[in-house]
Amino acid sequence: MSIAEIKKTAEAKMARSIESLKGELQKVRTGRAHPGILDQVHVEYYGSMVPISQVANVSLLDARTISVQPWEKGMGAKIEKAIRESDLGLNPSAQGDLLRVPMPPLTEERRKELTKVVRHEGEDAKVAVRNVRRDANEHAKKLLKDKEIGEDDERRSLDEVQKITDRTIAEIDRLIAGKEAEIMAV
């Protein structure tokens, strides 16, 4: 493995950490409705647990209401029960076949809890990035030990990986700050 490969691998892994963080942050609900909120809710469908999006059409009615339209007649009650029992704090109401899921406004206490969750997700992402940096640095030191590269090349590699790490952590901080501002906005 060359220095360029080490750098490219580290960059790719750090980019995946950021993408994973973005996915986790989308699951944290703000006052607005978002169909992705129900992605983690599973419902029983012919003996197996599947996400709601695989048994119903999930869309937005307005900024604060999600609509869930089951594809089969008998699924409405099961989906309603699954949403109620999830830890999202949502209370769906049935209107014929259509389920309306209003998003309750966030209390100040709940907003503070959500910012803690967001910070925790950010910290997890930073740990993942630092682990990638450590692995890349170990690869470079191994190349030096095996006399495949010189000390100057190893030092340059460590510096480049550190610059990539700094950029990635700055991006994580920016994402976390943006999500916190979104949560705290009334």
TrEMBL record:
| Alphabetized UniProt keyword annotations | Cytoplasm, Protein biosynthesis
InterPro entries per the UniProt record, alphabetical: Ribosome_recyc_fac, Ribosome_recyc_fac_dom, RRF_sf
One matching Pfam family: RRF
GO annotation (BP), single: cytoplasmic translational termination
Q: Which residue spans traverse the membrane?
A: none
Places the protein is found: Cytoplasm
Q: What's in the GO CC field? A: cytosol
Designated name of the protein: Ribosome-recycling factor
